[in-house]
Amino acid sequence: MLDSHVHLSQSVTSFDPHKIYFINSVDSSDWMILQDISSKHQNIIPFYGIHPWYIQKTGDSDLQKLEVLLNQNDAALVGEIGLDRIKAKKDPVQFSLDKQIYYFKEQLKLALKYRRGVSIHCVKAWEELFTVLKELHQLIGKDFKAILHYFNGSVQIMNRLIKQGFFISFFPNLNEQKNPKTFQAFQLCPLDKMFLESDRYIGESEKYIVAHYQNVSLLKKMNFADLKKRMLINGEIFTNRALAGKR
Questions:
Q1: Is residue 80 reached through a cis peptide bond, with omega within 30 degrees of 0 on the bond before it?
Q2: 3-state secondary structure at position 144
Q3: Which of 59, 72, 112, 246 could form a disulfide with 139 if both were Cys (CB 3.0 to 4.6 A apart)?
C-alpha cells in the first residue's frame, strides 16, 4: 500500500515493510535525517525540498545543499515545494508570494535539471503555478512528472494539471456535500493519474491511509486489492523504479 504524502517523525524509527512511504521534507533540517532513514529502508522514497511555510528561514545556501543532494543521490526526489496564497495573506512580509515564487521556481529548476519527480503544494495559487510552468516550459520535457499534493481544486484545474504531466493526490476528506468540486474531480480523475495520501506524520499515518483506501475502493466500486495494485503501479511510473513492500 502506497501513501503518496507523509512527513517525518523523529520519534519513529520502524516502518511497516509492506507499505510504501513518499516522505516529504519541509526544510533543510529534515534532509540528513531523511537521507539516513531512506538509505536503511527500501520502502521509504525521499523527497527533499523547502515548503512555502518555511521559506522565512531559507537562503540560497539551502538551494545549493539541495543541488548537492540531488547530484549525489539518484533516488532523491523533490518536495514538498509550492505556493500558498493563504500563508502570504497572513504574513505578507515573511511569506510574500514573490518570495514563495522565487524558491518554488528555483527548486523546480533543480528537479528539471536532474530529471526528478516533484511533489507540489498549491493553495489558492493556481494561476501563479501555471505561470511558473509556462515560464519554464522550455526546460520541461516529456518525462516531467509531478504530484499535486492534497488536491483541492476543480475538474478544469485537474485536467490542466494532468495535461502537463501531473498525478493528482487526494486526501482522506472526500465528501460530496462539503466540497463538491473536489469530489467531482476525484470521481472523474483517471486511475492511472491518481494517488492517495494521508498527509500525516509517520507513526500516525497508517490508520488514516488504510481507511482512505477502503473508502476510495467503495466510492470507485473497485476491489481493494486492485486499488492498491493500481496505486503501486502509479508509484513505479512516477519514481521510475520498482518499489519494495508490494504485499
A1: yes
A2: coil
A3: 112
Nearest to 190 by CA among 149, 159, 217, 156: 159
Q: At what angle do helices 60-72 and 97-113 cross, to 10 degrees?
A: 20
DSSP one-letter string for 86-107: HHHHH-TTTT-HHHHHHHHHHH
Is the pTM higher than 0.70? yes
Q: How far apart are the first and last CA of the chain?
A: 7
Strands 118-123 and 2-7: unpaired
Q: How many CB atoms lie within 10 A of CB 141?
A: 9
CA-nearest of 222, 180, 174, 224 to 197 is 174
d(CA 219, CA 54): 36
CA dist., res. 138 & res. 158, Å (int): 22
**How much of the chain is helix, strand and coil, in % rounded to 5?**
45, 15, 35
For 18-52, what is each residue's pLDDT tens digit? 899 999 999 999 999 999 999 999 999 999 999 99
Alpha helices in the chain (DSSP H): 31-40, 60-72, 85-90, 97-113, 126-135, 155-163, 180-188, 205-219, 224-239
